[in-house]
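Researcher: Please predict.
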Amino acid sequence: MSTSPKRAVGRARLPRPVPPDFLPPPLPVQRDHPRRTGWHWLLLLPIVLPLTTPLYNRLEPRLFGLPFFYWCQLAFVFLDVGVITLVYQLTRRRP
């Protein structure tokens, strides 16, 4: 008796079983957009304001020894955080 790694000729192969689908069905898509409001236009402020460099490209007035250019940019960071927080609070969905 020989043990050969080859399959015997003429044997029928069984079909492979199909794996079960464990994913849930997709959620229905809502077509209405109640969250689109005018408040989102405020988000342009943190983008456009720092790009207007000629408005704050100067040394005076100084604040704690820092030129206006630097402390104005730092003020923009705090302004940006405030605007983004405001827009988020005004446009989030509440249960």
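Model: Residues 38-91 form one domain.
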